[in-house]
Amino acid sequence: MLEVQDLGIRFGGLHAVKDVTASIPAGQITAIIGPNGAGKSTFFNLISGFYQPTSGRIQFAGEDITRLKTHEVVSRGIARTFQTTTIYRELSVLENAMIGHRVRTRAGLLDALLRTGRERQDVQGSRDGAMAALTRVGLAAQAHLPAGALTQEGQKRVGIAMALSSDPKLLLLDEPAAGMNPEETVNLMALIRELVAGGLTVALVEHKMSLVMGLADQILVLHHGQKIAQGTPAQVSRDPAVIEAYLGSHAHGGQMGQTTPAETTLQKGGAHA
Amino acid sequence: MTLFLQQLFNAAALGGVYALVALGLTLVYGVMRVPNFAHGGLYMLGAYFTFAGLTRLGWPYLLSLLVAALLVAAIAALMERFIFYPLRDAPHVQPMIAAIGVLFFMEAAIAHPRVFGPEFQTMPSPINTIVNVGGVTVTGQRLLVIAASVLVVFGLNYFLKRTLTGATIEAMSQNRQGARLVGIDTNRVGMLTFAISGALAAVAAALIAPINLVSPSMGEVMNLKVFAIIILGGMGSVPGAIVGAFLLAFAETFGGAYISTDFADVIGFAVLVLVLALKPQGLFRRSA
Amino acid sequence: MKRVSWGWAALLVVAALLPLLRPSGYLLDIGVNIMIFAMVAYGMNVLLGYTGQLPLAHAGFFAIGAYTVGILTLKAGWSFWLAWPAAVLLCAALGLLLGLVAFRTRGDVFAIFTLGVGVIIMLVINKWDSLTGGNEGLNGVNPPAGLEAFAQALGLKLSAGFYYLALVSLVLTVVAVARARGSTFGLSLIAIRGGEDLARSAGINVYAHKLRAMMFSTAIAGFAGGVYAVYIGFLGSAAASPAQTFTILLYLLVGGLGTLAGPLLGTALMYGLTQALQGLEDYRFLIFGPLLVVLVMFAPQGLVGLWLRERARRAVRAQGRAQAQEVNRA
């Protein structure tokens, strides 16, 4: 579904992502893992058009999307969520989802001023699309509450609904389980499985190994901005380069909350900066 | 050729003044991430305080200049404490609007008939030496402006690079969050940066005022110029502000001499429009 | 929602009946001025209140609208009814040009940039003698054709005719802004205000939306400027001054950013207050300046914002009580 070739970006002299060639297969869950600063979020930012790569190509469903702007990428069918609960807290849950649907509507300022047929159609379509997305994440009943009034987990779901209402084929989730307790994490995993069963392709960056190991069909491991392994959870957790990368980063002071995938399959995740 | 050299000399003096004013503004932006629209007001206050010291109190020039710099530094620091600091987490338009309020208050206060009045005033020139070098008229005041601004710029550079407090300001303008994490007292740094920016603006005003006239709206005009400078130089960049200042001074001086004086004050902005249309990040992009 | 619409309707009826009560010319003049400047405040609100960008050239666009009507009617012999839409289109086009450059940069630079453009507009008006009359200004802009006849048909003076012209213009402005706000387009603007990066990743074409908001906003300023030109009859470059922009910014802040009633309420209150303190005219920023500071520090949401917030708080409390009662019953 998504293929990247020799993808790279430099900030000043630093290679945040370098020569990554990888693919995200359709209909599966691909997890992207790696020690802090491995370039995981940068990788997402490159795919979603937030950053322009300094080298390499990105292909999505057979189309070259390397140079597209973010909104063009979204309209091609790639939506994303952010690490933190980044949503519009002061707007209603429904409005949040409607904002995500904007990329599917065409009515502009003149339509709004003249109340054209297209405007009325788009407003209705926008509500319907947003409600459908809210139903998928189980928030239909809370549609008219201010998004900020929801729990952490609820706000995460609003973020996912916002992404879903753009009607994506590929959903990028950046640390979806951060700040969630074990029960909420389990709920989230169920939700992700449901979405994939519905035909969606999911890629996620996550530190919680329990989630990654329990959910992912494919794991892509980044280290210092480079790909060091890709394969099934079983393959990756036995990969010597992966173990070395995780242990190595521990030896150098390491990061909290990260253990080698080989060491544990039920890590609750700690405090991430 | 003589005209050209004359313009060159005048432009160097003007560039020095612009650099002083722009440096303070760019430092404040670097540390606080807020474009301080009141900066031109501080510059204007500096000119009037010096003017008052010279004409109303009969103080010598240097003393008037120093007292003005101290007073304006204090006012700038208070502004940071009572307005910008409380608004540090608010949406950016809020401190910008507050700064506009301060600027217009300062202007209205100075323009009030009981204070200085709205009309232009002439500041007596403290140095009246005029030297003629190969047909180029070199006035003592302009020489002083050049010498003083070079001195201050080097002093500031030394302060930023070689002292702990200066390094702190640099660190904060690089990364506010990071500076807080390594235990820098960011509150004090903000105030200090504002004080320095105020002092720089006041010194610049005191230096140039004997050459130009003094008026309550001089700050508004200067605002436009120094903002053009720091956008061109890259917001927050110190070297960018210096280079931008001299570029603008040359563009204005030669543009004024060879094209039209009507629009000399907005040449900077015209250049800015052109540059931004081509290069939105400014000429010297800050490395992120 | 319904109650609010009734409020607007009642206000409109009162405003429409006012001239029939034969108020003094002075009162009518204040009314016309309030309506004209409220329109400019609505224009600013589209950018500042809904889109979160601080535009500082609006007096400039207001003046461009006014001068376009003045020049086209005086020098080219156009009818006001043609010159007015032309002025609006010109302001929209210039707003687009400004936006094309200014929105290429991020956030803060936009405000600085527009401030500079505002000053340049004023300077150009001031120096372009052959077109704008320079320092002398433009004198004797005629009332729109048919306005006097309209007023006489109602048994009123020309000043009442201007009052109705301003009222109709204001109603059009409010309806246009309300429609824009209620649309998917308007929601996208709100999304940009709430966070540009988030809006971008949600798939909103931020640049295109900002450009349209800019055009809409400057077009409204030009629309108001057209009414101003024929009403005042004399045009000077002071209409374009940054001080004028900041005065309107204050109206908007007092009333409430991003609200529909705020621009009108703020303008009515502050303009009325300025009239009451006549002697202050030249030094109004002695009070307005600190007021701007105090407002953004302690009440950035303005009067209407405060009222809305209080209402929301009450609604939450009422909901809480209802829930508590249900629990008690159960």
* Rg measurement of chain A, Å: 19 Å
Spell out the helices and strands of chain A N to C.
Answer: EEEHEEHEHHHHEHEHEEHH
Flag low-confidence runs of chain C. Answer: none
Fraction of helical residues of chain A: 25-40%
Largest interface: B-C, 49 and 42 residues
Helical content of chain C, roughly? over 70%
Task: Calculate the terminal CA-CA distance of chain C, rounded to whole Å.
Answer: 32 Å
Q: What structural class results from the helix and strand content of chain A?
A: alpha/beta
Count of domains of chain A: 1
The share of residues in extended strands of chain A comes to: 15-25%
* CATH C-level name of chain A: Alpha Beta
- Find the count of extended strands of chain C (DSSP E, 2+ residues): 0
Total strand segments of chain A: 10
Family (chain B): Belongs to the binding-protein-dependent transport system permease family. LivHM subfamily.
GO cellular component, one term (chain B): plasma membrane
Membrane topology (chain B): Multi-pass membrane protein
InterPro entries (chain B): ABC_transp_permease, BCAA_transport_permease
Descriptive overview:
The complex is a heterotrimer of chains A (273), B (288) and C (330). Chain A is of the alpha/beta class. Helices cover 38% and strands 22% of the residues of chain A. In chain A, the strands form 2 sheets. In chain A, strands 6-7-8-3-9-10 form a 6-stranded mixed β-sheet, sandwiched between helices. Chain A starts with a strand and ends in a 22-residue tail after the last helix. Chain B is mainly α and 288 residues long. In chain B, 70% of the residues lie in helices and 3% in strands. Chain B is globular and about 55 Å long. Chain C is mainly alpha-helical and 330 residues long. Chain C has 2 domains: 20-276 and 285-299, ABC transporter involved in vitamin B12 uptake, BtuC, CATH 1.10.3470; 302-330. Chain C is 77% helix and 0% strand. Chain C is built from 15 helices and no strands. The longest helix of chain C has 28 residues, at 302-329. Chain C is globular. The model of chain C has no long low-confidence stretch (mean pLDDT 88). Chains in contact: A-C, B-C. Chains B and C meet through helix 4, helix 9 and helix 11 of B and helix 4, helix 5, helix 12 and helix 14 of C. Chain B: It is found in: Cell membrane. Chain B: Pfam families: BPD_transp_2. Chain B: The chain crosses the membrane at residues 12-31, 37-54, 61-84, 96-116, 143-160, 191-214, 226-251, 257-278.
